[in-house]
Structures are given as C-alpha cells and as structure tokens.
C-alpha cells in the first residue's frame, strides 16, 4: 500500500525522530509513505474566526495539491491532522460553500477528487490491523508500562475528527498492547498539556504538563507516549522546570509512539533517535530488557 | 433586551459563530478547563458578562489570553456553545486594534532553538496583532 504523506514543518526539525521512525516502521510493516511535493505549513492551529479566510489558505492549498495525488492524505503530527482534517470537513460543509468557493478560487489549484485526511495511527488500526502488527514484532516490549497520551488535537472536536472515543480513546493503548507493552489507564490521557502557551505563558504550560506526568506516575507508568511534537516538548523538556521547582519530582521518559513501535519491530538503536529525548528513556527500556 | 455594548457583542457573535444567549450557565465548560485556576474570569463568567452586555470587561480580562484552545469546553457544552471560539473572537478584537500579547523579539535564543515551530506559529496566530 502506498499513501500520500504530509509531514509538516515540525517533523522536519525538532520532531525528526517522530518522522524518521515512522517512515522506517512503515517499511517494516509493509506500507509506503510518499511525501507529497511542494507542501507548505498547515498553519499549526485551526482558525475559528468567521472572517479570517487568510488563515485557511495554507491548509486548503495543501489539500488541493494532495488531491491531485490520491484520495487519502496521511498525517503524523497531531496538529497537522487536526488543522487539515477540520479544513477539509469545512470545505465540504454544504452550509459553507460560499467560503469554500472563495478559498478555492483564491488558491487556484483544483481539487482533483474528494480527499480524506487520516492519521498514521488510523492506517495502522484500520488498514493494517493490530494482528498484522503483532506479527511484525521481533522484540515484544514485555513488562513496559506505557501511558498513552492523546492530548487535545487527536480527539477534539469529536464530531469532526471522529478518531476515537473523545474521553477515553484506546487506539494508542491497543497499539501498545499489540507490541507487547502493558497499557496503563490513567485519568489525563486527553487533558491539555498547555500547548503553545509555552511560548507566552511558560509557567502555565509547566503546571498543565506536570499534572499529566504526576497522574501517569500515580498509575505507575514507566513511560508516556504521544504523537504530537508540541505535547512531546512540553511533557519531556519541561520536566527540567518541574525538577527545578520540586527536588522530589521523579522524571518519566516521554517517547513518540513511533520510537516504541520501531523498537518492537527491530529498528536499530541508532534509528530510534533516543538521543533527542530530554529525559533519557534508555535506563527504563534497559530495565525491561529492550535496549542494550 | 438592550445591550450597553451591543456592537461589540454582535461582533463577537459574528466572528465566533456562537449565540451568547444560548448558554444557560451550567458551568461544564469551566469544570473541564485546564487553565481555569489562572483566569480572572472563567469561561462561564466570561459568557455571563457578555450576556449582561459587559464586553469591555471581558476584553480586558486575562481569561481570553489563557485559553489554549484545548476544546474541552465546547465538547462538553450541552448547548453547543463553544467558549474557545468566543475567546478567539475576543482576542481578535483586541489584536486587530494592534495590541499584541507576544513580542517575538522577547523570546530567548535557547527557546527558539528548542521549542517546536508549531508552537511559535500557533502562538503568533493567537496572540500577535
């Protein structure tokens, strides 16, 4: 299977490890992600002001270009997924056709065919299936307790995204079970990490992220996994501030789900890009016998 | 009912696509808000003040600048009122009068190196005029 793939800006820089592992794992599992040419930034956040059409030009242009290549567009960053899927839904909303027409006229790139925006996790769950993934596991992550953190952008607004149960999503948990890890159920799997507030109100983001880490720790998680580069940054890098504020704070490694998927399916240690994680996950992975 | 700040309220309703009077003040938005502890006006109070026509008070509050658009409020609302959209509209009114809340020049070099771009793009979209 071959899919058109939209990586987005952050996956080319700070979240390189999310992107690189995902591409290599796809090869192992048996599908191909073909990066679409000439993609641009999705805008990072979905605009909701009714008169601000300029904010939608980027995502509309990306969707139009992707539609020339196939009927599905695969995303991996939670923010790109959210923005592109919501923009795509709005373009097809019968009540918003006047706005849709203005946007499409402006970008001057035709929609070749209707297109569906899906997340990499939906490829794994809906097209490949957990059984087939289980069959590709060469190093099951037995004994590793994983708290799957979905955040906001994968599940809300639920009516548009329809990714999973909005209050208790299970897709990542099921994937973790398929690769032999032990999914940990915790309360804050969809609680906000503070997102972009980290730029302007850093302390608020630290507080929001601390709550999630503490909650995962209450349920004895060894690691957290996420699919959003910004959640990853807040939950991982801000532990430095949590430790500075509270010497008793116990750090927990935060990984991209693709890193654990790569580990379980036999990627080489170097390919997992564990060096980029601020809280080193190797000691805990070593403890459960997964990394030498 | 005659609103004292009628023009502003209408503008907020038009920008956000939300009916201010649809809210019956149950407070579910506020119970789920992750940053409510930091807000001078919480989501429920914000909408109440708008219902009372006090738009200026809302535009001057810190609550609208703390919303991280996590969308829990709108997801939980039994009346389909989306506070995050109302906050976005309020911010737009302030920002369009050239009152930026973030200054790109004030961001430290080490943060520019480290923080993912998506956070900068989102932050400037939300908080810069």
Automatic annotation (TrEMBL), chain B:
Can you name one GO molecular function term for this protein?
Answer: metal ion binding
Tell me where on the tree of life, at the top rank, the source sits: Bacteria
Q: Where are the transmembrane segments?
A: none
Output this protein's name.
Answer: 4Fe-4S ferredoxin-type domain-containing protein
> What is the protein's species of origin?
candidate division WOR-3 bacterium JGI_Cruoil_03_51_56
Q: Does the keyword Iron apply?
A: yes
Q: Which InterPro entries match?
A: 4Fe4S_Fe-S-bd (IPR017896), 4Fe4S_Fe_S_CS (IPR017900), HdrC_iron-sulfur_subunit (IPR051460), Helical_ferredxn (IPR009051)
Q: Which Gene3D superfamilies match?
A: Alpha-helical ferredoxin (1.10.1060.10)
Instruction: Alphabetically list the UniProt keywords.
Output: 4Fe-4S, Iron, Iron-sulfur, Metal-binding, Oxidoreductase
What range does the record give for the signal peptide? none
Q: Boundaries of each 4Fe-4S ferredoxin-type domain copy?
A: 21-44
State the GO CC annotations: plasma membrane
- A Pfam match: Fer4_8
């Amino acid at each position: 299977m071959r899919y058109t793939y939209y990586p987005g800006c952050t996956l080319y820089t700070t979240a390189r490890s999310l992107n690189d592992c995902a591409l290599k794992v796809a090869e192992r599992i048996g599908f191909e992600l073909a990066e679409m040419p000439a993609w641009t930034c999705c805008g990072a956040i979905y605009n909701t002001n009714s008169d601000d059409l300029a904010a939608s030009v980027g995502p509309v242009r990306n969707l139009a270009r992707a539609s020339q290549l196939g009927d599905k567009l695969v995303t991996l960053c939670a923010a790109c997924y959210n923005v592109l899927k919501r923009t795509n839904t709005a373009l097809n909303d019968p009540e918003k056709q006047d706005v849709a027409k203005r946007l499409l006229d402006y970008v001057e790139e035709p929609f070749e065919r209707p297109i569906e925006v899906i997340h990499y996790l939906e490829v794994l769950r809906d097209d490949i299936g957990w059984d087939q993934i289980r069959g590709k596991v060469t190093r099951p992550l037995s004994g590793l307790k994983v708290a799957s953190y979905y955040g906001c952008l994968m599940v809300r607004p639920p009516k548009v995204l329809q990714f999973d149960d909005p209050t208790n999503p299970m897709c990542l948990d099921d994937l973790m079970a398929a690769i032999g890890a032990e999914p940990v159920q915790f309360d804050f799997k969809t609680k906000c990490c503070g997102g972009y507030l980290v730029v302007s109100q850093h302390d608020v983001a630290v507080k929001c992220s601390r709550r999630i880490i503490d909650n995962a720790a209450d349920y004895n998680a060894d690691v957290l996994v996420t699919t959003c580069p910004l959640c990853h940054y807040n939950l991982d890098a801000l532990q430095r501030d949590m430790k500075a504020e509270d010497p008793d704070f116990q750090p927990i490694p935060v990984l991209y789900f693709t890193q654990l998927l790569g580990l379980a399916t036999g990627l080489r240690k170097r390919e997992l890009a564990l060096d980029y994680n601020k809280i080193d996950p190797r000691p805990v992975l070593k403890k459960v016998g997964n990394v030498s | 009912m005659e609103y004292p700040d009628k023009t502003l309220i209408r503008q907020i309703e038009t920008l956000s696509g939300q009916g201010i009077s649809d809210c019956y003040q149950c407070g579910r938005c506020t119970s789920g808000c992750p940053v409510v502890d930091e807000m001078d006006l919480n989501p429920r109070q914000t909408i109440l003040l708008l219902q009372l026509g006090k738009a200026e008070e809302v535009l001057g509050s810190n609550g609208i600048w703390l919303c991280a658009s996590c969308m829990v409020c709108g997801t939980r609302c039994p009346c389909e009122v989306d506070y995050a959209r109302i906050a976005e509209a309020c911010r737009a009114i302030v920002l369009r009068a050239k009152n930026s809340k973030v200054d790109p020049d004030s961001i430290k070099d080490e943060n520019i190196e480290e923080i993912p771009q998506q956070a900068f793009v989102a932050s400037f979209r939300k908080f810069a005029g």
